[in-house]
Amino acid sequence: MTVFCEYDIKNFEKFTRAEPVRGQLIKVASQKRGILLVVLTVSSLIFLIPWLGHGADYLHVTDSGFVGLPSSVRAMGMGGVFVAIADDYGACYFNPAGLVQIRQRQLGTMHVNLHGLGLLHHYFLSLVEPTTGMGAGGISWSRLSADLEPEKWNYDLIFYSYGQFFSPNKLSPKNVFSSWGVNLKYLKQTTTWEEGSGYGLDAAFFIRRRKFSWGAKVEDLISQVKWGTQRKESMPLTVKLGTAYRFSPRGLLALDIGACREDFPREIRLGGEWWPIQGIGIRLGVVKIFQKFADFRLTAGIGFHLPVGKKIGRIEFDYAFLSNRDLRNTHRFSLSYGF
Question: Which of 120, 139, 157, 194 is most buried, by CB atoms within 10 Å?
Fold first, then answer.
């Protein structure tokens, strides 16, 4: 009996020393650890939601009068999760470090009639360039316009986004890399009673593995707003963390958490995307914002990718639906062109 056991152990050791088998075992173990991490994180957040919600019995006014409205309809269909995805022009807003994943130029545009009231309109326009060894970049413009007779005001945000690899210095065939990115922002507000302008700096990081990815963005790491009365102030620093799991080439699940000094946590977002057939994507999401009177909000969306030839490029149309308990629901539309 002893000889039999020793023989089996020796053979097993030889078996596991084989490089292909050992690599397969390591791969399986890594995937299981990643899945376990996501499950534990989501389970913990679900357990903590009722407790965290009671601590935030206040409503914070928008930072210094400027607003940071999400600028990706695709992301909003998934509940606003995109920090650990960031693989199209929406990365400019959510995580500029993810811009290194873009393979071709993209021009994206969006218009939203917020809550269907005809009073608040959000516009967005972005142009991004893929990396050529010197990093990927993009220039974007976002505007929130209000027509509240007799008062009118506009909030404009113009920002340059840049992303570059840490290691390796290029996108590997296995999609394994890490990167960093920044946003340089110029802010301007024009109203009937006061004007102001300022600047801000965001810093971001991104890590991609075969099935899992992680992202982080620190908004307004450095910022200043100067008003017409010569009053100066800075915008509160906000941190956003995200993780995503690609369970197949056609589907993914993602989780984002946002926090600032006044709101900890500020928001939790969970969403997913699935492409049942080529060119058509379905998205669902749920949002919990920890402010007074806030509640769970459901989102849904659909996307269409239309290739129009290798020399011409690809057109993408996205739609997102955002529910709102107190105001009207919001419908978002965007159109982008990859070339």
Answer: 157
